[in-house]
Design goal:
Elements: E1 14-20, E2 23-29, H1 39-53, E3 60-65, H2 84-102, E4 108-112, E5 115-117, H3 119-125, E6 129-132, E7 137-139, H4 142-145, H5 152-162, H6 164-173, E8 177-178, H7 179-184, E9 190-191, H8 194-209, H9 213-228, H10 237-244, H11 247-258
Parallel strand pairs: 2-3, 3-4, 4-6, 5-7, 6-9
Antiparallel strand pairs: 1-2, 7-8
Length: 268
C-alpha cells in the first residue's frame, strides 16, 4: 500500500532544509494548516534525514515549524477510507520517520513554539534537546479526536520522555500540556521567550558543533543501546489492525471532516 493513495487536493506543504556551516535547519512548513503534515511532507522529511545522516560534515540538526506552530500531526483528511491494512502501513511509515530522528547520528534539537501535537509531539519526544516558548502546548489527543493508536515504539518514546504514568494520563485524557507542565515533567530542556528561541537554539547548536564529535556520538549511541533491548520482538500488529479496522476510527475520521464531536461506541 502506498500512503500517497489517500492524499487529498489540499495544500501539500513542504519540509525545508537550510544549512549554516555544520548546522542543518529542518523547517516543517504548512502554516495555513498549523503545519499538519501531508504524505508529501513525510516523504520529504524522510529523504532529508537519510541524506543528512550520511553527511560527515554535519554536527547538529535543528527541527522547527513555520508560522504559529511546531507541528500538529498528520492531516486527518488523509485518513478517509482507511482499512486496517492502510493503518498498519501508516504506522510503519511513521515509525520509520520517528526512528530516523531518534537514531540520527548527530544531536537533534527541537525548537518548539505553538502546538506540538501528535506526530509533532513525537518529533519533539525523540529530539535530544527540547526548547519551547511559554505558549507552547504538547499532547497526543487521539483518544478524543481520531480514535486510533500509535505503534509500540512510539508508545515507548512517550514513556521514555515522560514516564509511564504521565504518558498514560496524557493519552487517556487527550489533554494538552502547557510548557510549564512539560518543563516540570522534565520533557523540556528549557523555556525560552519566543523572540529569543531561534537565536538561543542556534547558540546551543553552535556550542555542540564545536565539541568533540566522537564523544557526542558515543553519548547518543549509549542512550540508544540502553533503550534498544526493551522493545525486542514485542508483537503489536494485532492491536493496530483492530484499531484501524474499527467503527470508532471510521467515526473519528468522519466526525473530523464534519466538524462535530465523535460518538465513541468501542465497537470493532
Amino acid at each position: 500500500m502506498s500512503i500517497t493513495n489517500h492524499s487529498n487536493a489540499r495544500e501539500e506543504g513542504v519540509v525545508l532544509l537550510e544549512r549554516t556551516g555544520s548546522i542543518a535547519m529542518m523547517t516543517i512548513s504548512r502554516p495555513g494548516s498549523l503545519n499538519a503534515l501531508t504524505w508529501t511532507m513525510y516523504e520529504q522529511m524522510e529523504a532529508h534525514l537519510r541524506s543528512l545522516a550520511s553527511d560527515e560534515t554535519l554536527r547538529t540538526l535543528v527541527i522547527r515549524g513555520a508560522g504559529k506552530a511546531f507541528a500538529t500531526g498528520t492531516d486527518i483528511h488523509q485518513f478517509r477510507g482507511y482499512t486496517s491494512t492502510d493503518g498498519a502501513a501508516y504506522e510503519r511509515k511513521m515509525e520509520t520517520i520517528i526512528e530516523g530522528l531518534y537514531n540520527f547520528p548527530r544531536p537533534v534539537i527541537a525548537a518548539i513554539h505553538g502546538y506540538a501535537i501528535g506526530a509533532g509531539m513525537l518529533f519533539a519526544a525523540v529530539a535530544d534537546l527540547r526548547y519551547a516558548t511559554p505558549s507552547s502546548r504538547f499532547g497526543v489527543p487521539i483518544a478524543r479526536t481520531l480514535g486510533n493508536c500509535l505503534s509500540m515504539k512510539n508508545y515507548h518514546h512517550l514513556v521514555e520522555a515522560f514516564g509511564a504514568m504521565r504518558a498514560k494520563e496524557m493519552l487517556f485524557t487527550g489533554r494538552l500540556l502547557s510548557a510549564q507542565e512539560a518543563l516540570h515533567y522534565n520533557f523540556l530542556t528549557a523555556i525560552v521567550e519566543e523572540e529569543h528561541i531561534h537565536a538561543h537554539v542556534l547558540e546551543v547548536a553552535q556550542q555542540i558543533s564545536s565539541n568533540a564529535p566522537l564523544t557526542i556520538w558515543a553519548t547518543k549511541e549509549a542512550q540508544r543501546r540502553l533503550n534498544a533491548a526493551t522493545l525486542h520482538n514485542i508483537p503489536f500488529d494485532d492491536v493496530m489492525a483492530r484499531i484501524y479496522n474499527s467503527h470508532d476510527f471510521a467515526e473519528g475520521v468522519q466526525a473530523y471532516g464534519a466538524k462535530r464531536k465523535p460518538h465513541w461506541t468501542g465497537e470493532d
